[in-house]
Amino acid sequence: MGTRVRQAMILAAGRGERLRPLSDYVPKPLLELGGKSLLHRHLEGFARLGLERVVINIGHLGGQIRASLGRRCMGLDILYSDERDNRLETGGAIVRAREILGDAPFLLANGDVCSDFDWTPLVTADAVETLVLVPNPAHHPGGDFALVNGQVQCPRAGRATFTYAGMARLSGAWFAERVCAPAPLGPWLLDWAAAGLLAGWLHEGRWFDVGTVARWRDARRACGGRHGL
User: Fold this and answer.
1) What Cα–Cα distance (Å) separates residue 10 from each residue in 79, 90, 150, 152, 155?
2) What DSSP state is assigned to residue 209?
3) pLDDT, tens digit, for every residue of 12-54?
């Protein structure tokens, strides 16, 4: 019997170099689309799922994130993993946050993505570790992974690829032997895919990676000023 997901982590510590000058004054997860910040959009989705707590790693301008959300928001307990003095990248951030997450499963979301993806199938007790994939966007035409019969596989010639959406269900236990030091998550995902450990869910709905000023503006236009995608 598996464990139903009760918690999530949002990766929100990045400097957002490609979003300058916007990110000189506002941390990129607090940039708004349709009148709501990217962070608040994530929290709304997690609250609807009935999650209990969300861990957010903070770095660049992290004090603004704490001031915006506080310790409780939308019925969720908000806990912070403070990296303002030592940024750990996406993998190292999860290793450090494991002090809070423990060995239990959790939902993971990049703080600079926005989507209408329905997480519901990934929170059930019988769900497994899963990456959310999307059709390759124009800025990433080569994709990241193959998807064969619901299983994430490493890309190889002659096999269609998809892009990792920056959203996943993972297990805290998988990070138990990792060293708490700066490290990207991507290579670990490739290792787990090569070992056949990851399921995949292809989302063909709306999804934005708000990683540059141009893509943020595109996403704002797509949202049309509405409070929702």
Assistant:
1) 10, 10, 25, 22, 26
2) E
3) 999 888 889 888 999 999 998 888 999 999 999 999 999 999 9
Count of structural domains within the chain: 1
**Residue-wise pLDDT tens digits, 56-74:** 999 999 999 999 999 999 9
Q: Is residue 148 part of a domain?
A: yes
Name the DSSP class of 137.
Answer: P
Q: Which amino acid is at 110?
A: N
Whole-structure pTM value = 0.94
Report how far residue 155's alpha carbon sits from residue 153's, in angstroms, rounded to the nearest whole number.
Answer: 6
The range of the structural domain enclosing residue 84 comes to 7-223
Residue 157, domain member (yes or no): yes
CA distances from 198 to 37, 46, 131, 143 (A): 30, 22, 7, 16
Q: Cα separation of 222 and 115, whole Å? A: 12
Q: Is residue 228 part of a domain?
A: no
Report the amino acid identity of residue 123. Answer: V
Rounded CA gap, 182 and 88, in Å? 4
CATH number for the domain spanning 131: value is 3.90.550.10
Which residues pair with residue 80 across a beta bridge?
A: 56
